[in-house]
Amino acid sequence: MNHQPPKIELSVSPDSIAGFTTLLQGGIFIEVPCNTQIGDLLTSLPGFSRDYVQSRVETIFIDGLPADSLSQPLTTSGTVLAISAAMPGLAGAIFRKNSVHASLRTSPTADVETESAEKTIQVRLKLFNMIAVERGEQLLYEGCVVKASTIQYFFNYRKQLLKQIAEIRVNGALADFEDLHLWLNRKKNILLIISGD
Amino acid sequence: MADKIYRINMTDLSTSIEDVPADWAGHGGRGLTSTIVAAEVPPTCHPLGPNNKLVFAPGLLSGTPAANSGRISCGAKSPLSGTIKEANAGGTSAQIMAKMGCKALIIEGQPQEDSWYTIKLSPEGATIEKEEELVGKGNFAVVEAVGKRYSDSTGVITIGQAGEMQMCAANVSIKDPDGRVRSCGRGGLGAVMGSKKVKCIALDAGDGKVDIADPDAFKAANKTFAKALVDHPVSQALGQYGTNVLVNIINEAGALPTRNFTQGQFEGHEGISGETMHDIIVERKGKPKHNCHTGCVIQCSQIYNDMKGNLKTSGFEYESIWALGADCAVDNLDQVAEMDHLLDDLGLDTIETAVAFGVAMDGGVLEFGDSDGMIRILKEEVANGTPLGRVIGNGAANVGRTYGVTRVPVVKNQAIPAYDPRAVKGIGITYATSTQGADHTMGYTIATNILNVGGSLDPLSNEGQVELSRNLQIATAAIDSTGMCLFIAFAALDDETCLPALIDMINARFGINLTGDDVTSLGQTILKTEHEFNLAAGFTNQDDRLPEFFELEPLPPHNTVWDFTGEEIDTFWNF
Fold it and tell me: Which of B519, B298, B546 is nearest to B434 (CA)?
């Protein structure tokens, strides 16, 4: 996990940055020590204070199963962690952390086994709805590792956002859309930085 | 002004205004429609025959300044499920009906001639007029024409071509403040209206208004209630993304029915998510936040424009987007919006029709993902009532029978909505036991910690989940009687002041002293009334079951199956 993905920097019109945060619904990759707690992973991210995490992140999934505790450790590389604000409907209530309706879930929250603390694991973090909007701009500004296919798919259904890109740099060098397309086709993961120009 | 019952007889084309019977006085909305249907409709009647009745009722608080109180209920025996049915919608009609003093509108009988009619309601009474201009028109044209015929403020209740053709998935549409429509969607009530040869109902409240027994107490309670709604974080999510905020969540949970309920996650979910929808709406200068009736403070609706910036559809809901999207493997939101628009105009339930398409795709009628094919079928086949159009328009079970598909996700013949029960078992209990066929809104709200309808069983056991589903359905039935939008439930879940404020408003409106126990009792009464109707209609406990394939086919990614026994499900009615 030591190889660095190529760095792609996009300078975009400031008004359009919020639209780019929707890309985070596809997930970003974060490397953490094995057994890092959910809460600690989140508070290590820019803009995620402990207060924000506790009050705003109301729905958490680990590998598709709802999680009720920010103390739950992350133990497996490839784990998918998804976070969201409070969600509507009975389903939203069922999946909310510490919900009174947790019993209506299909299975209880998975038991966690600890592994060696020396190991580093890769977690894919998906940010949904208001969490993405409220914290996504800062995350993108500081850089996130994203699947190239996530970016391609995003631009495929959000073609209008391509028009908001004023400048592209790949590993520091000016590039054009064709270069961007080539890099996205060639590489699996990208370090993506998006800032307002 | 004392409330009255408006009765329309379509056999002899007579109208009457009646006093409200004492037994009906404490009911509104769903409580009233179900009470009337249970009292006056023979449970074994043909739903499209002369003995069925179509009942409209505003809620107990409709027409008042109460926040989010503008839902109208529509009830009858359903031609889709054969059960008692209530469906409700926003729009302007609930408030207009309440202001004109119409506690319920009952449409009964059937015309002798092959003519269509428009019914006009006002505080003075009702008239029945022959209708020719609007026959064969879609809902949007009807709303526009009625506005020109009477006035822009006239309320409109209408059916599209689907209702005229008495398709079992036909809905009843209610004009909203923008001149678009909201749907009393499920159960084919539009077909019942069509069987009565009523194309449209026009409503004018004149100077009518709703009397409130204790205005000061009402105002104070409403302030508390509205604050609880506005402050709740779920309201904020709804106001920004609409109900479609759920796509990513339900997909993450592995509960997003995909390709006719064969998978729990859709690879194209990002293309149809609420986040994507919000961005497109803003980019095209639509409205991401919008209400379906005056007085709604949550504003979960939206105006979705096409690529040219022209309005395409509004009220673009999670259920519709899931059904036309993931269940049919379509990941293009513009295609989904086009279909939503067509279904609104035709007057067809988006859930039922889209699930029907999913079954049709499973049966090889068209490929999964073929949204162009779906649009063609809607425009050319369904709209014109061709054999294929009628097969689709009569619902998912009908498609399954026609094409020999056994993976048909229905309960009591009504299509299952956007949460796979193998992945969310508690919702599966509601699908199975609901008095109205598979319906996610029947057990939508809380009861336990606020109304003190606590469960006594282990909540992790199957029996405990049945008990909780029962409590949820009781509370939902009570809320459905108030005319309140069900989305008040989220604030009610978390804010201890919310539900007591609602009860205080009801008390202040009528000068009574209901308690939480009374509200619980109301919900129980409604459920039992509906259940007894269904039993008399021939339903048994064997109908409170999910289709077999849910037990046999593990749902990826969690590979779970439905494992409730019949005996466990049957404990639902032990109250």
Answer: B546
pLDDT at B378 over 90: yes
Please report the pLDDT score of residue B410 as a whole number: 98
Whether pLDDT at B206 is above 90: yes
Sign of CA dihedral B538, B544, B547, B552: negative
CA distances from B483 to A20, B91, B236, B300 (A): 40, 12, 22, 17
Q: Of all residues in chain B, what percent carry a pLDDT higher than 70?
A: 96
The closest alpha carbon to B315, from B348, B352, B351, B289, belongs to: B289
For residues B277-299, give the mean pLDDT: 91
Looking at the DSSP assignment, which residues form a beta bridge with residue A9? Answer: A169, A193
How many CB atoms are closer than 10 A to CB B377? 25
Q: What is the greatest pairwise CA distance in chain A? A: 54
Residue B341: phi, psi to the nearest 5?
-60, -45
Of B234, B331, B430, nearest to A88 by CB-CB distance is B234
Res. B453 pLDDT band, cuts 50 70 90: very low
From A58, which residue of chain B is nearest by alpha-carbon distance? B233
* Spans of chain A below 50 pLDDT: 1-2, 108-109, 111
Given a contact cutoff of 8 angstroms between Cβ atoms, the answer to whether A108 and B429 are in contact is no
Instruction: Tell me how far apart the alpha carbons of residues B189 and B184 are, in angstroms, rounded to a whole number.
Output: 8
Question: Are residues B493 and A91, on separate chains, in Cβ contact within 8 Å?
Answer: no
Chain B neighbours among A 83-142 (CB < 8 Å)?
84-95, 100-108, 126, 128-130, 132-133
Mean pLDDT of chain B: 92
Find the mean pLDDT for residues B288-315.
92
B254: left (phi over 0), alpha (psi -120 to 50) or beta: left
Is the Cα dihedral B276, B277, B278, B279 positive or negative? positive
Q: Is the pTM of this model over 0.80?
A: yes
Residues of B within 8 A of A91 (CB-CB) are 246, 249-250, 253, 255, 419, 424, 427, 440
Pick the most confident of B58-67, B356-365, B484-493. B356-365
Please say whether the beta carbons of B254 and B323 come within 8 A: no
How many whole angstroms separate alpha carbon B124 and alpha carbon B122? 5
Lowest-confidence region among A24-28, B191-195, B235-239, B556-560: B235-239
CB B142 within 8 A of CB B174: no
Among candidates B430, B460, B560 on the partner chain, residue whose Cβ is nearest the Cβ of A108 = B460
